[in-house]
Structures are given as structure tokens and as C-alpha cells.
Amino acid sequence: MTLSADEAARFAALLEENQEALVAAWTDRVTTSLRGRLSHAELQRQTSEMRRAFQQALAGAAQDLTTEAAGELRAQLADLSATRARQGFTATETAVSVFALKEAVLNVLDGSDATTLRDYVAFSSFVDEAALFTFDSYVRVREELIADQAEQLLELSTPVVKLWEGVVAVPLVGTLDSARAQVVMERLLQTLVDTGSPYAIIDITGVPAVDTQVAQHVLKTVVAARLMGADCIISGIRPQIAQTIVALGIEFGDIATKASLADALRYVLAQTGKKKGR
Amino acid sequence: MERVPILKIGDILLVSIQIDMEDQVALQLQEDLADRIVATGCHGVIIDISALDIVDSFVGRTLATIAAISKVLDADTVVVGMRPAVAITLVELGLSLPGIRTALNVELGMDLLARERGEDDDEPDDEDEDEPGASAVATS
């Protein structure tokens, strides 16, 4: 049910005439729903801006949200949802901020004749549409946030650092699943090529648990590095991890394993020193 | 049929594979290389595969055969410049190219060969100590 031109005009006038009462009632409702997590003054500013946007849209004879006259309103709603999503409010709390307008309008409506009811239903569906739009924007912003964070996490968790001339290290932090293992492997091998380092140290101090799958990933990385002509050393094996490795029967074969990164570096330097000596 | 050029640099034969490694090309390279090692008396062979996108099991086996043939003719073989993607694929396929020594690039490959040669002249007990440091894949 869309808003007809005169219904829109009537509501625009109504929003204009009763603006103070409306904003007050609306702000009260929203403040209650958010349980004081935003200040009254802040919310009052938000609602009065929203009221103006609604009023402008209706004065411009907007029949639904997609029309050009509602452009300003859409921007306001999107802005509101984006702010709320970033501040950690739930989707319901965000949508209620818009729905509360309906109740506020009901309070100021003069319910004496039948046309008022029809008007109100039409207006109400307009507000519903606005609230749905808020919901969509909210979800979109949240998804963007999640995607950003996932990407940052992947970036953060797989740095390849140069420790010494010809020695690079990968400090692994966090659980190693297949996707991450793949990223680590590719980045390490690419760094080996780029820097021409014949030694790589894989430090697993930050890996909370080593099961057969994690060991498999690490072993694959080591074998791939060897195929390319670089040697890998595994370091940072904590006591419990060492026990788990033995209990699970994981074989590291002839791959050098060291207790700490310092030991691994010392081992590599001894190796290179021996070669330089010749 | 295309042929892979074999360049002689000092005591080393450098083979840089810039074309698709079809089976015939691989076999031809194997023959050519054996001829050249005998003709030049070189003691080192470097095979650069940095331009290869695909190393299949046949190419892998040919490389191993070349290494073995060179060894018989008293020349050490090093395969250099394997791309990360190729290495990952080989590992996923379970091919670890046994018997082939590898290095990251031509320069490190030449270092490796020089070291090997140096070791041969050294006393035998020194040789054992240096074994784990070499980038051999023979044991993996």
C-alpha cells in the first residue's frame, strides 16, 4: 500500500505542526529501547534530523522510499544504521529507532474520523519500508565489517620476517586450518624466491594445538620448500606439543626441530658459517 | 621440434628451460646433455626451471634420470628456480623428486656446486658433518 500524494502532504503538515511533541515522544521511546546506552541529547538530535528527513520526503510527495524525493531520507537511514552497526547495537535496536515514529505519530493523531485510520495505515507501511531499509543497511555494514576483519586477521597472522641474511622466519599464531596453511605456504615460498634465502624457520610457539592435520600442513610446507632448494627448521615446540606429537606418532623425519627460535637461528648460523668457512 | 640450449660457463653447464617441457623435448635434453658433459668435461650441471609452469611426473622423472646420468659422468646436477606453485603442486601430488638437488636460484646453485666440489677434495670426515646443511631432497 503506497502513500497517495495528498496523504503524503497531510502527513508532511502533521510532522511539521507537531514537531516538538513528536520528537519528544519519539526520543523517549528510542531512549527506553536502547537502555541509556546513548545520551538523550544525542538521540534527540538524531530523531529531529530524521523527522526533518521524513517531513521533506513526504512534502516532496514521496510515495515510497525508492523515489527521488526520499533521497535525503535514505541517506539519513543508511547513516543511522551504519553508526549503530559500528557502535555494536543489535539489528532490532536499530530498527526500533525507526518504528518508534509510528507510535509517536499515533499519539498526535486525532482519531475521530475514518480517513485518519486509512492515512495512518498508509503512513505506517511507509515507515515499515524505511525500517526494512535500515535493516538492509545494517546487515550490509556488518558484513563489510566482518569481511574487513577476516582479511585483517589473515594479513596479521601470516607475516614472513627476515631474521638474518639468508634466513626468514614465519611466526605462526593461532589455529592452523587448511585455508591459513595454504596462505602461509604460498607466502613463505614466495618470500624464499623473492629474497633468495636458503633457510626458513617455521615457529609454532603461537599455535595452541598440534594435531595430525596441522603437522601435515607444516610437513607439506617443508617438503615444498626443499623442492625449491631451501631448508626449513621447525621451532617453538612447547613441552605439551612435543608430547602430543610423539603420542600421535607424527614423524618429522630428518627435518630439524628446535625448542626455541633462538636455538633455530643459532643452528642456521652455525650451518651457514660452516659453509662460508670452506 | 624445439631444443633446449645448453650453455657452458666455466666448469658448469647451464640449461635454462624456456619452452614447454614436452616428453620429446625432455628426452632430447637428456641425450644432448649427456653428449655435452662428455664433450666438455664439465663437473656441474645447473637446470633452471624458473620459466616452467608445470612439472609433471614425466618431467620429474626425466630430471632425476638426468641427475643420475650426470653422476655417472662425474658431474653434479642442481635444479634451480622452481616456482612456489610448482612446488606446492608436486607436494600435493606426492612427488618429492627423489635424487634431485635443488637451489632457489642460479647463484645459490653455483654456490652449492662449488661447495660440493670443495668437499670432494676435503677429508672424508668433514664431509659427513656438512650433510644436513645441503639442500638435498634425496632423503625426504
Automatic annotation (TrEMBL), chain A:
Q: Which domain of life is it from?
A: Bacteria
Keyword Magnesium tagged: no
One matching Pfam family is STAS
> What keywords were assigned to this record?
Phosphoprotein
Query: Can you give the residue ranges of the STAS domain?
Result: 157-268
Any idea what this protein is called?
STAS domain-containing protein
User: Could you tell me which species this protein originates from?
Assistant: Paractinoplanes lichenicola
TrEMBL record, chain B:
- Please list the residue ranges that the record marks as compositionally biased, kind Acidic residues: 119-132
Record-linked InterPro entries? Bact_StressResp_Reg (IPR051932), STAS_dom (IPR002645), STAS_dom_sf (IPR036513)
Domain STAS, residue spans:
2-113
PROSITE patterns noted in UniProt:
STAS
Pfam families assigned:
STAS (PF01740)
The domain of life is: Bacteria
Q: Where is this region: Disordered?
A: 115-140
Entries under Gene3D superfamilies matching the protein: STAS domain
Question: What's the name of the protein?
Answer: STAS domain-containing protein
Specify the species.
Answer: Paractinoplanes lichenicola
